[in-house]
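[Discussion] Sanity-checking designs against the backbone

I'm trying to build intuition for which residues belong where. Below is a structure token string of 107 positions. I'd appreciate it if someone posts a full sequence so I can compare it with mine line by line.
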């Protein structure tokens, strides 16, 4: 199955962005509008992901998000992988926040 992919700079500002990284990665820096469900929890929490909208899935570099997007698509969802992950997000100068009050960064 081919998974649709989009560059980080092209993700719509109002997109449903699903961040599947681990807690420490999320705390260090994430997109302000992102929803955090780690890849290790997605199967048990899939009902939290809307079924009626496109889901943009992001991780650090794109591997985990590709797997999650493929799985969501197999369930009949409309999921798109964010190519290059949060590293590309940061490189594209997209907004980021941290949970620590410190300068956000991609861990």
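Best answer:
Here's mine. Compare freely.
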């Amino acid at each position: 199955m081919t998974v649709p992919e989009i560059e980080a700079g092209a993700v719509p500002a109002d997109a449903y962005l699903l961040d599947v990284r681990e807690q420490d990665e999320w705390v260090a820096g994430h997109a302000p509008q992102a929803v955090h469900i780690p890849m290790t929890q997605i199967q048990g929490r899939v009902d939290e992901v809307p079924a009626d909208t496109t889901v943009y899935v992001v991780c650090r570099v794109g591997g985990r998000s590709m797997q999650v997007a493929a799985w969501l698509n197999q369930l009949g969802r409309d999921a798109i992988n964010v190519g290059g992950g949060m590293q590309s997000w940061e490189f594209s100068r997209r907004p980021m926040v941290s949970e620590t009050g410190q300068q956000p960064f991609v861990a």
